[in-house]
Amino acid sequence: MSIGSPPKSLLVVRLGAMGDVIHTIPAAAALRNAFPEIRIGWIIEQRWAELLCAKEAPRSGPRNSARPLTDFVHVVDTKAWRKSLLSGGTRQQMAMARREVREQNYDIAIDFQGALKSAIIAKLAEAKTVVGMKSPREWPSRMFYTKATGANGTHVIDQYHSLAEATVGHSLPRCRAMFPQDSRNGSEAANPAQGGEFVVINPGAGWGAKQWPAERYGAVAKALAKDGLTPLINFGPGEEELALAAENASESTARRISSSIGELIALTRHARLFIGGDTGPLHLAAALQVPVVAIFGPTDPTRNGPYATRSIVLRASASRTSLSHTHEPDPGLLSITTDEVIAAARQILEAPPA
User: Fold this and answer.
1) Which single residue of 39, 229, 239, 264 has CA 20 to 30 Å from 150?
2) Which domains occur in the chain, in start order?
């Protein structure tokens, strides 16, 4: 089979993290839209699988609203495996995962991640062709590709779209991200404000340099509560103290909310506005076309900022682009004031819908 002919089956390799998976989904959706009959699998870390498949839904079989994009979700847990790499249980789990993928006999595997581990996983799938970028995130990944292609575009979503186009050999119409809908999450998560309008505020970030102070998020929440909105402080594992600090600073006008990914999808669909830094929940909001106020520091919003939604991105000129996972907040990020964020939020809220 030539790389330009329509494939019968295709494997997406994008293990994580949350925002990166979300950035990859539009490219996979474009492939799905162009080839409705293609069999698409996706290898993903267990903790992010709800971005592709509702929690209690089957991970394979006919597609439906609970698993709208892929025919098969292949789940791995590389973090747990690394902790006990030599144990019999880990080796058994790895063997089962490898066998499950190989049994699908994929024609093409696309490594959207560009990491050494994702390239190795793509190669172990034994697809006829393994596609990746010419300049992957970790250069040794190139050794495992049978076809390497350049990435066009500035934003990472554009780059992934161009990789999908290079894989099939022609242009693909743009598509919005597709997310599972789980009816069990809908009614409870969609009405956290008892029918009123709410804003989701997310003080957490992947590492300290990207993290605007939690107390300032609380002050923003307090101001928006005075405007009649219900502020919800979203937090994930390990972010309990941040959420509590933001809630306390809001003087109890906001409330903390922790949810599964499926619940967060259902919640975010109905938000009036999302406020946060460069982190997965913000990119989920943008993908769901919820208006966003994005607070950026060391990461570049032209590459990773909110995409195709109404948004205001705040980034100080003092910030310098860096992917170093340092703990101390970026000085430029700290120069962004509470008043600036409140003003940006009100500007979006007062604007008529696009």
Assistant:
1) 39
2) 9-168 (3.40.50.2000), 183-350 (3.40.50.2000)
